[in-house]
Amino acid sequence: MEKTDAGTTVGVDDPYAYVDRCDHCTDDGRCRFAVENGHQDPSFADELSAQEYQCPVVGDPLEDGLAGPWSWQDCPHMRSRDHARECARCGLESRRSAHDDERPLLEEHHLSYADASTTSGDSTENRDRQTPATADSQRPNHEITIYLCRWCHAKVHNSWASIDDPANPDPDAIAARERRRSHEQAQLDFETAADRRETE
């Protein structure tokens, strides 16, 4: 199972299994990084400009699945941050508290961390030599994040709990969510001073 530099588990064997789409990929399958930040990696941008900046992983967006010749591991600038506001392990949904400092129910959890090699100019050369057999040693480290409720987050980091484990929300997590839901409903029932005076 993948681990952080501190030696704690990230809860998955393959972080790339949780990549749905790169943050740099536009709706029409083009690479926003190469278009807007090509100066950071000119050889990468030049290579993609010859293909009209089409993402080499996504390929033709009209085809089903990922139709390009690369996999996510091959791209030196791939980044995937989950935007779903529920726990990837137990499904607990987020309840935000806008006007207090209460700890969030969900926390961002890194499956993989980016490092300096993901934005270096020579990363394209390294990628071109990459094969599945050498991917573990040569692939760049990518930033891949998901959301976990803080209870699942603790279980993943403090034990061998896997994100793939079938799990229901922790009873304390459900209680915290319901407290926030009750607070939201109480705010919706707010009465103005004029309304209160009329009922007194």
Can you lay out the helices and strands and say which pair or pack?
Elements lengths: L31 H5 L5 H8 L29 E3 L24 E7 L10 H6 L6 H4 L4 E7 H9 L12 H18 L4 H7 L1
Parallel strand pairs: 1-3
Antiparallel strand pairs: 2-3
Low-confidence stretches: 116-139
Q: Given the helix and strand composition, which structural class is it? A: alpha+beta
Number of strands: 3
End-to-end Cα distance, whole Å, is: 64 Å
For the biggest β-sheet, the strand order reads 1-3-2
Mean pLDDT: 80
What percentage of residues falls in helices of 4 or more residues?
25-40%
The coarse overall form would be globular
The major β-sheet equals: 3 strands, mixed
| Rg estimate, integer Å | 22 Å
Number of domains: 1
Strand content: 5-15%
Tally the helices. Answer: 7
Taken in chain order, the helices and strands follow as HHEEHHEHHH
Write out key terms for the chains shown.
200 residues; alpha+beta; three-stranded mixed β-sheet; 7 helices
Describe this entry's structure for a reader.
The protein has 200 residues and is of the alpha+beta class. The chain has one domain. The protein is built from seven helices and three strands, in the order ααββααβααα. A three-stranded mixed β-sheet has the order 1-3-2. It is globular and about 70 Å long.
